[in-house]
Batch of 2 targets.
Target 1
Amino acid sequence: MLTTLLNGVSLAAVLALVAIGLAIIFGLMRVINLAHGEMFILGAYSVVALHQWTGSVWWGVVLAPFVVGGIGWVIERTLIRRLYQRPMETLVATWGLSILIREGLKVFFGGGSRNLPIPIRARLHFGGFSYPGYRIFLIFVAIVVMAAVLWLFTATDFALKVRAVIQRRDMAMAMGIDAARIDQAVFALGAALAGLAGAVMTPLITLNPEVGLFFLARSFLVVIVGGVGSLLGTVLGAVIIGLGNAYLSFLTRPVFAEVALFVFAILLIRVRPSGLFARPE
Amino acid sequence: MKSTRAGNLGSSFARASEPVWSRREFLRNAGVGVTALTVGSSLLAACAGGEEGGGGGGKKGEPFKLGALIPITGIETHVGLSMKVSTQIAVDEINAKGGVLGRPIRLIVEDEASDPAIAVQKARKLIREDGVSFIVGTLISAVRNAVVKVTEPEKVPLFNPTYYEGGLCNKYFFSTGALPNQQIDPFVPWITENVGKSFYLIGSDYVWPHGSFAHVKEDVQKAGGTILGEEYVPFGKTDFSAEIQRILGANPEVLYPLVAGVDGITFWKQLAGYPFKGARVSHSVSEAILQGLDADTAKGIISAAPYFMVVDNPANKAFIDKYQAKSGAPYVDTFGEGLYDAVHLFALGAEKAGSLDTEKLIQGLKGVGFDAPQGHITIDPTTQHTTHAFHVAEATGNQWNSFNIVHTENEIAPASDCGKIPGITA
């Protein structure tokens, strides 16, 4: 059924958008960023704030990645840079950061929930079939962003520098690459992508500071299933989980679909610990 | 030249960035760490503080500590604040007239977060640390059922404002919340007469929707209607596309969702994106829900409750004026009104009993009446639930006064699944 397929693709789109930022930070830089869900939420609340000031949701969607990217850059410079190669400390520090951000948002915005109107009310029609326009928009955004990220991390000069810094940091620096700048750029980019995901998702959900935890768990699931270190793997992991969730939710019940997906992930990791599309080391 | 990866610069390792763990260990520990901390976070969230009121024990002039368990965070956060403000207004009104039996009320509010584990901790804290001997509040049924297991052994009365699935009979439990016979039983026949006969039921997966739908199904059967589908969703769902697809496929005349709290708002919003042609009917829709939707989505939803803000009587006008002056948000719903009533009934019961001693207070509360914003209500001595007004209303928009009342019944007495409540003399 076309509806189920589109449901699956729109779910996959959300998952891909949320997870790709984590794939960059966790997969490439090996930083366990437990504040990733909060980057998502900061993007969402940027939309709320900009909507309050301007009356339009679109300003938020456009500006949120820059806002959250900026916040990510600050976090990298103050916190993350001291904790590379120290995973336990990073775990604790980013979790503490996540609590800080969540409670800070409660102070600023109140503990209550926020709802924004869905900005695209039109539906996509063909034949007798109809589908919400905003979800189509979401899919479109996800495709464009995935393509851009994959291009950025494979076909550009920046991609070469990133690989160099990851593989042999001292040699990269000796060759004149500013490794610290690359770290900042990559982390900020990962945060910006999470912020974008939060921004486009906001009109579809009811927003409160706790929502980030749900998307944090999902992001890790997608990245680990898809393969840590492989951006394409993350995208494909999102597609598999999104489509799987949609079909199972429709054919059976949502609770069963959730359980089945986690069972699938556990079995997969057991059989292929590096995920589906592990980056060759 | 500084490096954040100290120790690796100029090292003789074959690979720079020699990690502390192997890839396999890394993935395993990351997965465990994330799971453990995500699970632990709900326990950590319990440390969100409450507000202190202070005040002491038994003598005249000394403040009487009244505990309040309110869902300030969690899935019912959109009504939590209005419940808190309503409770405070009632307390202020009573204190302005000299308090209860000459003692001012000190309100101690704790966040129950719509989480039974947290609510139980907060209830214990109120009783054992703060020494309260009377508690108002709790919202969702799962929380109420958990808290009653704490308050009853401690012999602390709980006065609850929430309509629910019925069946709770307990000497230390009072309710200004409607029972199914006061809210569902009058509603379903009205629906089958005025809206449609084929129903699709969808609710959150816990006791309230299950219990309520049991009554709905019975009433639909009696009215000669049909149930096309019934399903339950977990809390915290962010995507309802599969459920909506099933609903569209079933094509009911009446869609009756009992998706709780903010999940309900998400559900209505997402449903609006699809071409659903049936009626949207639910007794869970209040002003608080409407405010979360935009006007086009809200228009046409039909609800039923003991109280809507547009109910036209002097007590309600006075209440709304005070409420909107005090609160940031202009809307209050039947839970807030229920708490306002509960606090006033408590004071009236204490006056009637001439004492704040729990056992005498319980006897005093029986039969007490009050001119509430919803209309006049009385506490039924046997069930310890109040009589209720009943209104059916259709939303014309998303503002606090967008409801249009289309049907009213007054002072419906509470029936109950339990005949005699043990330990009560009526």
Target 2
Amino acid sequence: MNASERAPVAPPELKIVFSGPMGAGKTTAIGAISEVPPVLTDVQNNDRASCDKDNTTVALDFGQITLEDGTVVRLYGTPGQDRFDFMWSILGQGALGVVLLLDASRADALRHMDQYLEAFAESARAGTLVIGVGRTDLPGAMPLHEFQRRLQAGEHCLPLFSVDVRRREHVLLLIETLTCLLEAGEHGEGNA
Amino acid sequence: MKAIVPTVRRYHAACTQELAGFMAQSPGILLAQLTTADGFEVAVQPPDTAAPAKLAAMSSSLQALGEVLVTESGLHGSRNTMIECEDGYVLVMPVPKAKPALSLLVVASRAAILGHLLWAAKNTTSGVAKILANQRE
Amino acid sequence: MGMTSRHTSDFGHSDAKPESAKDRAIALSAVQPHDSVLLASMLELLVGRSAGHWRIGTLHEADVLMFGPQADEALLARWRLSGKPWVALQDPEDEPTTASHVLHRPLRVFPLLALLKEIEEEAGETAPSPGVAHPQPLPSNWQLADALRTLGMGTTHGQWLRTGGIYVRDDGRQFAAADADLARIREGRLQDAGFTDRVPAPPAGLRVHPIEELAWFAGWWADGERLAPWLSADMRFRIRHWPDLGTIRAGRDAIRLTAMLGNQMWTADELVAASGIDRSQVVRYLNATSVSGLLVTRAGAPRVQPERPPGLIASLVRGLRARLGLG
């Protein structure tokens, strides 16, 4: 077989993981940027006491973005509830970066941040994790500087922004920040 | 602590009995568990099963992934999700017409006969469906 | 009560403030809370013992800066330019400092009194000490930015400082403004009149915001040619933590610069060269982050920059940006 007859080399497959507690907006965020309607594994939520949502993700959300050169960037959303934490490590393996979404109106929001930073410790250490905090404008919400203080106590210097993932430009901000972190990391700058 | 939510707690005893009958009649069954679609345990046999909460969550993930794979493949009507291993089988089978949605998780050794396993599991899910229907009446 | 009678018998002086006693303030930076409380108590004790009436005050009004080992170097650099005394509060075994005065911990009354008298005597001199720059007032475009930068470092009273239609809490954490004024802040159209008065609370109806947006744009728009007066070209910078770009919405250059400054230190020139970003934008970014309290500065050591050729990530990032319309 000569060079012209060899099978074409498939472009690399890459993934970005969206994680965070239930109700933080992972499915919404993926839906905002995926070129295809996201594949969802949402089922009826039987535990309204923990989170007052009709449905909950039990395996993953899936979306994708195809670049001009054919590279497919896969977008995975993890289930939010603790009992599905085995999916976090499965989906997190080999991820280019992680977008962590938090809900400032939850009393346990800081604990959630600690939990997910530990679950995605490799990405946090590599500086390829960005944090979007939603609902910061609600009365009684945890102010952003408390999240920032907690991050600094853990010696993390990670992007932490107030966002509303119902707005596409906010989701794009998180992705753009991730791309800048990846760029800075590759050139031996910044957190890498 | 068992992750049984209030909505299904009242089925617990009857379902436990159904699972016990399933295990008694079917050789090679190592474990049988009923779970909600969102990963909560309803009943499990044997009672001393290790980590039932994790199994419940995993089986609901598997069920959901199986269903979505069927749909994305252009097919419909997923009946069960089966994993065949060197030393046994893992089977997840939905309970028909259950509200809330439930699935049966079965873990069996190679001693189980696959055809019998599927038939017995189907009977068990039908039995559970009757329990739910009777409780609603 | 007991303290008054004790210090009359110990010192043999009246504790009434002399009529000619000048009101003098000491600002504190990075001083441990218990030292701060102790100092305040000692200053009360020493009323009438020296020419001045000394108290703890804000940076704006202070005659003297007392600072601990973790004080911000840019703040110290700025203070040096003023020519006013600066006092290092340190343990005896700490390394020598270039401060004009040193006070050793644990704080004691007589060494403190001796220091205050020494400072008062020096203030009677007609010329500044050799080697210290003649004090220069800040250019007017930096007044508000400098005030925001240093708010909260001194004593706070739970009040709000007014500048035009904007109210800033004196701990430097929040500001209140109408939407129209917020737009002016973001567009650099704010009239910098400085703080004109203190009020207990902003008028009802004004929305209260975290300070970040005001501080950022006050620093951003102050000057696009030159670094802030307290920064210098030979300083090396890094970021203390990321700004809230979800609120500030500062654009990609700010994101890129922050990513670069995350864990490594750069001079302004190095940032311009490595990023390819227009110098004016880099200057504005450094000014904005400094006013926002996000910039860590160090003088001196050269940076070691590992060179790696761009690889897969660079092309991926370009493709992702293009696909999402990020430009």
